Amino acid sequence: MASLPVYRWRLAPDGLATRRQLRALGLRPGGQDVAGQLERPRRHRGPLVAYLYLIEQAKPVRPMTPAKWAALAKANAARRICPECRRDAGYVIPPSLGMCAPCAYPDEQRAAA
Question: What is the distance between the terminal CA atoms of the chain, rounded to a whole angstrom?
Fold first, then answer.
């Protein structure tokens, strides 16, 4: 089994790109194997690793269908509904609270009024 070529950060050869770089070009890896990896050294931890793919083998990004847009809108709307009071909070409810601000801090809302 051959190992992957490893390149230092910002020194990858032309023709290779990370997932984000492919996405910026309107492409996706499309099932191809990883062609290499970038490593960015860090002081007190292991290096950051980014996998590289061949640009010539990448495929175009699949377009969003109306059903996908509808599912995404429904999922985003669900993130705005408070599980306590069942109202639309008007913002995405933070997972750290798990509920809208008036439900999470009921005493502070009364004191402000």
Answer: 69
List b or e across 51-87, with b for residues whose CB sees 16 or more CB atoms inside 10 angstroms: ebbbeeebeeeeeeeeeeeeeeeeeeeeeeebeeeee
Neighbours of 19 (CB within 10 A): 15
Percent of the chain with pLDDT over 70: 93
Q: Read off the pTM.
A: 0.67
Per-residue pLDDT at 46 exceeds 50: yes
Q: In what order do the strands lie in the sheet with 16-17?
A: 6-8, 36-40, 48-54, 16-17
* 87 to 83, 91, 106: CA distances (angstroms): 8, 11, 15
